[in-house]
Amino acid sequence: MLKCIFPIILNKMSLENISVKDIANVTGKSVDTIRKKLSGERTFDIDEAMAINENIFPDVPFKELFSKYNKVS
Questions:
Q1: Quick one: how many helices (H) and strands (E) in the chain?
Q2: Model confidence over 16-64: pLDDT tens digits?
Q3: Vertex 47, ends 35 and 40: CA angle to 5°?
Q4: How far apart are alpha carbons 16 and 11 in whole angstroms?
Q5: Could you tell me the pTM of the whole model?
Q6: Under a CB-based contact definition with an 8 Å cutoff, are residues 37 and 47 in contact?
């Protein structure tokens, strides 16, 4: 099971059958690096986060996508 500190990303990955490899391909990072970033062990830089939002989850507002909470108020 993938450990992910971003519940919306985790949910969307599951619903839309998106893999860590898909995210790695968009960011140009390794699968291991993306796993570390999703788990909170490392952080995404702004360019990586924007690439993920624009190319994989364009239907989710940026602030909501990278929130560590289920909802952004």
A1: 5, 0
A2: 999 999 999 999 999 999 999 999 999 999 999 999 999 999 999 999 9
A3: 30
A4: 9
A5: 0.91
A6: no
CA nearest to 50, candidates 60, 41, 42, 40: 60
CA distance to 41, 67, 71, per residue, from 60 (Å): 23, 11, 12
Element of type H or E holding 5: none
* C-alpha distances out from residue 33 to 15, 36, 37, 40, Å: 23, 5, 6, 11
- The domain spans of the chain are 21-65
Give every CB contact of residue 31 below 8 A, 6+ residues apart in sequence.
20, 21, 24
Distances (CA, A) of 43 to 3, 17, 36, 54: 14, 23, 8, 18
